[in-house]
Amino acid sequence: MTGLEGLEAYVRTYVAETKSALHEPYLYEAMRRIVPMLLKARADEKTIYFFGNGGSASTASHFVVDIGKATIRGDGKRFRCVALVDNVESVTAWANDADYSKVFSEQLKGLAHSGDVAFGISGSGNSPNVLEAVRVARALGLATVGLTGMGGGKLRELVDVPLVVPSNSMQHIEDVHLLICHLLTAYLRDEQPSTDR
Known about the structure:
The protein is of the alpha/beta class.
């Protein structure tokens, strides 16, 4: 007995479940609203803030690297992106001295301006610090996007554009969130200049 008897079936099931989370009209509908928002931010030289916890924090950092670097074309305008999760000193100071629910919102209060974009990522849609950051972002006049799953949680109702992965599996939700990062990056890299308003 090798312990691998069910591995092939497990792999096939996992891949099939992830693929099924992509075969829904929600993905195009959300992208149709998110892409112009990001293009406008680039054209207006506004900043896009990304934030989340755990695996979603990693995706936030990944988004910033990909969109900030891979979409550069010649001497054209660049996307101004910040991952609030990467400011470890601020995150730990607010968590220690105030409350963990404030680790992103307090950073936004000091950095964000009207017209910027806040991109909250929460697999459950109920992370208190993501929700608080979105509330603050809206009060400051930022456009808001939420990547979530599990029905969307509270985040779905708070953001201008919710992208809710139709799955209750955190692994599949995070898989799709990372794919969305790459899809957005590829499109923003390859889109024609005429669409950049």
